[in-house]
Write a structure and sequence with these properties.
heterodimer, A: 743 residues, mainly alpha, two-stranded parallel ribbon, B: mainly alpha, Recoverin, domain 1, 2 domains, 10 helices, 2 strands, 52% helix, elongated, calcium ion binding (chain B), cell projection (chain B), EF_hand_dom (chain B), magnesium ion binding (chain B), EF_Hand_1_Ca_BS (chain B)
Chain lengths: 743, 187
């Protein structure tokens, strides 16, 4: 079917059609020769019973101008193979062609028939069986891939929920929920790794609870070990379980199939980080290819006209809002265009901006100092014993961090009113400041934690000395030195225990995350839900219109929520090595968040009045995630490489450094030359980050080169289009009005 | 995948999966959506490829399209007769192009078709004015409309013929950061 009017995508189809016809023409020229050879073949095949070839011969003779692969010269065979490959490529790219569906289906049918006919025939001659086998395997593989894709799409959760939010609030709010879902997927994998390879083997095949000192609640704490308050704080039975580092035994191989527990623990820790890097970078590369150049002012009006309407909107109220915001945006753009912006009072603006930045810095410094102060205070409390203090004093650190995270951004918002930036720029500054705030808080927290670790290590020396004294006293009581007295059986709960800084670190992170979660949910309930309830029900007995003026319904804060999510994930990455339960906890938290926030946004929020998406914000958030990933793995790597593990707990106890487990595995489980090679590669703890950096660099370079290539292709296409238009002009003028009438 | 359905043959479903960006399940879901638009007109059995078209008025009533100011143009661009009557093939094609997986180039081609009100393969001033009025519900004054359309043509027109050809449009739209995320309907 010839297209009725010339439109951009049809040239492709025309080209293909022409190429096909051209091919046919060529083949027709060869026909007489083939027919002669066919008859010769037939005669010879009569004497040798090759039935398959005979029937093929008949078919070939019957078809017009078709080639017989076994009679072609190698280069013609090549050309046929090329044609088949081209058809296959066409089938692959069919969905991206701008043809009407009927054309696509017809082309698909034709191409499939062509491929089927000649693919089998191509396999004649040498390597025929191998070729046929390859073809069959490719077909099976394609079918498997397609089924897998179908399965994967069926598994994607919450699709309808997100669609509802999109139609009510537009794509910017929905982008947060899509991001949340993506994070959920990552955490699912992390959970699978830590649960399946670390927690389950230890629980099933390791020594049970109560068999050795590190796995038992000490006698002193036994009384309160089951209390809810203690369990909520992750002490008591929760502390002495697979949830934390300290429970794991340092036995090299456990269970009947010799599962290498310490090795697995170490590798899972490294593997979670590696997987996270890979996923984030892969998503960034994909986004970089899709998004155009951001913040280009040369197409201001055109973009406003053609890309401002959000096709996802399906709700009348949101649509009205969108119309209003588009109109306002146009009016603003027209005003900006008409009046030349006289920069009067530029000195005042500059002064105000400097002042605002200074205030923000003061704020950041203040919050950093506050956290440091609070952490030191909590250490003092811990030394005094926690029972003597109120609930607030015990949970001070976490509460302070969460409250700072809640109130400082509001403060930054107020300060930014001084600056008088364009809203888009102001949003970027706001995001940057909140990022700095969270980062500063996190690192202050870690520094304070390092102090606590050093304290515990000093304590370790003292405890080691005490234990030797205690052991000596045991033997003194039972017999003389020379007698081979049976070892005294002491209940594991009574053995004096060494301090375990890793479990402490794990516990701190778990507590931080729980309090962060609680703060988020409570803010949501009070800030959004309670506010909406008050506005709705107090409206008829209040002096002014609550819904239109202050406080009115809240809008969904996309950037704040996304940042919160990113930092939450950073904390998981930081603490997952010391508390294998963290990914599981996070999975639960994300699951609950999804439902809670979906409900809250539909129930209590109104669509945003002015939408200023920081364009290309997708890659902006990914970049932040990558930075956070890097910064969160730094402390973990530092502790692994420099601090010796506790002597009395965890899978690496007794070793000099945690990564010695690799050395040990190389020496005992691999042949001798292996370990020599690896020892030359020196410290694995140093080589890994270096390799990661190199992979990062390679990926970045690869994606840049890809975009250059695409720019080249674009330019070529443009050139083609220009020449086509020139041809068209000639065509039009020579055929006159007939063509226009028929179009 | 084990689900016995009688609406399409397996070959038909495979063909649809090759020609669109949808999976098997989504195609079946699309069929049920198409069917509920007009349960008496649309047959449940598509194995012998019935020739059934639904009129424009039924299609633009779908919740996904109802609030879209360009809904009429969207449906017209995908219909074979240009009047907005869609067969199931065209229905699937429409949502495939507007889905998340469609590439930028494909979307640009159809966006051009949608905004081209007089179907002359150029976005002339009248096309832009109509687009703008639909977008702002005619809230702008005629002078403002004039100004915006002039500015838009000035920005995007490369060959100086005072209207936007496809090449101009494509050059402009491929750099737009919001294009992919806004030109998207989830079904």
């Amino acid at each position: 079917p010839r297209p009725s009017h010339f439109s951009p995508g049809d040239e492709d189809f025309q080209e293909n059609h022409e190429r096909q016809k051209h091919k046919g023409k060529r083949r027709n020229g060869d026909r007489p020769k083939n027919k002669r050879e066919n008859q010769r073949r037939k005669r010879s095949s009569n004497s040798e019973p090759e039935t398959s070839e005979e029937s093929e011969d008949e078919e070939e003779v019957n078809n017009d101008g078709e080639v017989r692969p076994e009679l072609l010269s190698p280069e013609e065979l090549e050309k046929l193979k090329e044609a088949v490959d081209e058809k296959k490529k066409l089938i692959q790219s069919l969905r991206g062609k701008p043809w009407p569906m009927k054309q696509k289906l017809v082309t698909l049918r034709e191409s499939q028939l062509f491929v089927e006919k000649y693919e089998g025939a191509l396999g004649k001659g040498k390597g025929r069986k191998l070729y046929a086998y390859k073809v069959m395997m490719t077909k099976k593989w394609k079918k498997f891939q397609r089924d897998f894709e179908n399965f994967k799409t069926a598994c994607i959760p919450w699709e309808m929920k997100i669609k509802e939010i999109e139609s009510h609030f537009g794509s910017s709010v929905a982008s947060y929920f899509i991001f949340l879902r993506w994070m959920y997927g990552i955490n699912m994998i992390l959970f699978g790794l830590t649960f399946g390879l670390v927690m389950v083997p230890e629980a099933l095949m390791g020594r049970p609870y109560g068999s050795i000192p590190r796995k038992t609640v000490p006698r002193a704490e036994e009384a309160g070990a089951m209390d809810f308050a203690v369990l909520w704080d992750f002490g008591g039975y929760a502390q002495y379980s697979v949830l934390f580092y300290g429970y794991y035994n340092n036995q090299r191989a456990i269970g009947w199939f010799k599962f290498r527990m310490p090795l697995s623990y170490f590798l899972v820790g490294v593997g979670t980080v590696a997987y996270s890097y890979m996923v984030v970078i892969r998503t960034m590369a994909r986004n970089a290819n899709e998004s155009g150049v951001g913040d280009d002012n040369s197409f201001n009006f055109s973009w406003k006209m053609f890309t401002s309407w959000d096709y996802l909107i399906g709700n009348p109220e949101t649509a009205d809002n969108k119309f209003a915001s588009i109109t306002t945006s146009f009016k603003e753009a027209i005003l900006e265009e008409q009046e030349s912006r006289k920069d009067d009072n530029i000195h005042l603006t500059r002064f105000l901006r400097v002042l605002a930045n200074f205030l923000v810095l003061c704020c950041l410094a203040g919050s950093g100092y506050l956290i440091y102060f609070v952490v030191r205070r909590s250490q003092k409390f811990a030394l005094d014993g926690l029972e003597n203090h109120t609930w607030w004093e015990r949970n001070e650190v976490n509460m302070v961090m969460s409250l700072l995270g809640m109130f400082c951004p509001m403060l930054f918002d107020v300060i930014s009113a001084l600056e008088n930036y364009h809203p888009r720029v102001a949003l970027q500054w706001q995001l940057g400041r909140i990022f700095a705030l969270f980062l500063g808080n996190l690192y202050t927290f870690i520094i304070a934690l390092m102090d606590a670790i050093n304290l515990k290590r000093k304590e370790e020396k003292v405890v080691k000395y005490n234990i030797t004294m205690w052991e000596a006293s045991l033997y003194n009581g039972t017999g003389s030195e020379n007698s081979t007295a049976p070892p005294v059986t002491i209940h594991p709960a009574d053995v004096p225990r060494g301090p375990c800084w890793e479990t402490m670190v794990g516990q701190e992170f778990v507590r931080l995350i729980i309090s962060d979660t609680m703060t988020t949910y409570i803010t949501l309930l009070i800030g959004d839900f309670l506010r909406a309830v008050l506005v709705r029900f107090l409206n008829h007995c209040w002096c002014w219109d609550l819904e239109a003026g202050f406080p009115s319904y809240s809008e969904f804060d996309v950037s704040g929520n996304v940042l919160g999510l990113i930092f939450n994930q950073g904390m998981i990455w930081m603490g997952a090595f010391y508390a294998p339960c963290l990914p599981a906890l996070n999975l639960l938290r994300l699951h609950v968040s999804m439902y809670l926030q979906c409900w809250a946004v539909m129930c209590c929020n109104v669509p945003q009045e002015r939408v200023f998406k920081a364009s290309g914000s997708n890659n902006f958030y990914m970049a932040m995630l990558l930075v956070i990933l890097f910064l969160s793995t730094l402390p973990a790597i530092y502790t692994i490489v420099t601090i010796p593990p506790s002597f009395d707990c965890g899978p690496f106890s007794g070793k000099n450094r945690m990564f010695d487990v690799i050395q040990e595995t190389l020496e005992s489980d691999f042949p001798a030359w292996f370990s020599k090679v690896f020892s030359y590669a020196s410290n694995p703890g140093l080589v890994l980050p270096f390799i990661l950096l190199m992979v990062l660099a390679i990926y970045y370079l690869q994606s840049t080169s890809k975009s250059y290539r695409e720019a080249n292709v674009e330019l070529k296409n443009k050139l083609q289009m220009v020449t086509q238009r020139l041809d068209n002009f000639v065509f039009l003028t020579s055929y006159g009005s007939d063509f226009i009438l028929n179009a | 995948m084990g689900n016995k359905q009688t609406i399409f043959t397996d070959e038909q479903l495979d063909a649809y999966q090759d020609c669109t960006f949808f999976t098997r399940k989504e195609i079946l879901r699309l069929h049920s959506r198409y069917h509920e638009l007009a349960p008496h007109l649309v047959p449940m059995d598509y194995t012998n490829e019935p020739d059934c078209k639904l009129p424009l008025a039924l299609i633009v009533d779908m919740p996904e399209l109802k609030e879209n100011p360009f809904r009429n143009r969207i449906v017209e661009s995908f219909s074979e007769d240009g009047m907005g009557n869609l067969s199931f093939n065209e229905f699937v094609d429409m949502f495939s192009v507007l889905s998340e997986m469609a590439p930028r180039e494909l979307k640009a081609i159809y966006a051009f078709k949608i905004y081209d009100y007089n179907v002359d393969n150029y976005l002339c001033k009248e096309d832009l004015e109509k687009t703008l009025n639909k977008l702002t519900k005619e809230e702008l004054t005629p002078e403002e409309v004039e100004l915006v359309c002039e500015k838009a043509i000035e920005e995007a027109d490369l060959d100086g013929d005072n209207k936007l050809s496809y090449a101009d449009f494509e050059n402009m739209i491929t750099r737009a950061p919001d294009f992919l995320s806004t030109f998207h309907i989830r079904i």
